[in-house]
Write a structure and sequence with these properties.
Strand content: 15-25%
CATH superfamily of the largest domain: P-loop containing nucleotide triphosphate hydrolases
Radius of gyration: 20 Å
Order of helices and strands: EHEEHEHEHEHHEEHHEH
Structural class: alpha/beta
CATH class of the largest domain: Alpha Beta
Distance between the termini: 43 Å
CATH architecture of the largest domain: 3-Layer(aba) Sandwich
């Protein structure tokens, strides 16, 4: 048989639905999905099989106007993911249309795409009427020569199979890049940290300090088949530590429990999860924290 394999970059504004689409394509939860923007930091890859084609998805951080060092690193990672891919998929939210952020992406797309096939996926189509969709499709295709346009709902799965089938045919011929049963090339330590960070985001909502990161410090395989996972939640200020701990430690307990349950479901075995909170005032300026997230420590504009 002729096998195919290649990389697909999902790009778009924060909250456009990239992580939801990746998880839908792969059929497993490999990228955190929250309602808070800019939650995807590292370039998480999910691997999906479609016939004889292996699709390797690069879920990039949302593209936005960078203001801080972490922002610049995230935006650089997103454009880097697009530049390295065989095919690019631009996600645009149907109900938001062509925002300032989409305008900025369109302006840079010609330069980054450079000979690559780019598909347009208009997401959250259930939120608008068909005439609005048709108008948005026509306007976007007038602005850029998209290879194909797909109307999808990443959350509900509408149109996702058509997109996946088209992508499978676009992959270059060649051997598969990953074992067939491997869904993500992120080390499990990072996936575990992302799951805990998602639970913090969902629990804290508006209170969540942006200057927060989670790292898996130790992972011990036990003789009984369970795993002991030790994690550190880094915050920038003492006040943030109190928010994460909660009254009488109730917030961190609830977060740890939710993260442990999801990890157990993901791994299919018992997990002993231990989380502690540490204050590191300058973690946003430490190169080591960036490499832990799979990002480049950068100066200057991104």
């Amino acid at each position: 048989m002729t096998t195919r394999a290649g990389f697909i970059a999902l790009i778009g504004e924060p909250n456009a639905g990239k992580s939801t689409l990746l998880n839908r394509m792969v059929g497993a939860k490999v990228s955190i999905v929250t309602h808070k923007v800019q939650t995807t930091r590292a370039r998480i890859r999910g691997v999906a099989m479609e016939g004889d084609s292996q699709l390797v998805f690069v879920d990039t951080p949302g593209l936005f106007q960078p203001r801080r060092r972490l922002d610049r690193a995230m935006v650089a990672a997103a454009w880097g993911g697009a530049a390295d891919a065989d095919v690019i998929v631009l996600l645009v939210e149907a109900h938001r249309g062509i925002t300032e952020g989409v305008e900025r992406i369109l302006e840079r797309l010609d330069e980054v795409a450079a000979g690559r096939r780019v598909a347009l996926a208009i997401n959250k189509i259930d939120r608008v009427k068909s005439e609005v969709l048709l108008g948005l499709t026509a306007e976007l295709n007038a602005r850029f020569a998209f290879a194909r346009t797909f109307m999808i709902s990443a959350e509900k799965g509408h149109g996702v199979e058509d997109l996946r089938a088209w992508l499978a045919g676009e992959m270059p011929e060649g051997p598969w890049l990953y074992p067939e049963d491997q869904i993500a090339d992120l080390p499990m330590r990072m996936i575990a940290a992302e799951i805990t960070r998602e639970k913090l985001t969902l629990r804290l909502h508006q209170e969540l300090p942006y200057q927060l990161t989670v790292e898996t410090e130790a992972w011990e395989e036990r003789k009984d088949g369970s795993a002991r996972i030790d994690q550190v939640i880094y915050v920038a200020r003492d006040g943030h530590k109190g928010i994460v701990l909660g009254k009488g430690g109730e917030t961190i307990k609830a977060v740890s429990k939710a993260a442990r349950e999801e990890l157990e479901a993901f791994l299919g075995r018992r997990v002993h999860l231990f989380c502690q909170v540490k204050v590191r005032p300058n973690w946003l300026e430490e190169s080591e924290r960036y490499s832990q997230m799979g990002l480049e420590f950068r100066d200057g504009e991104g």
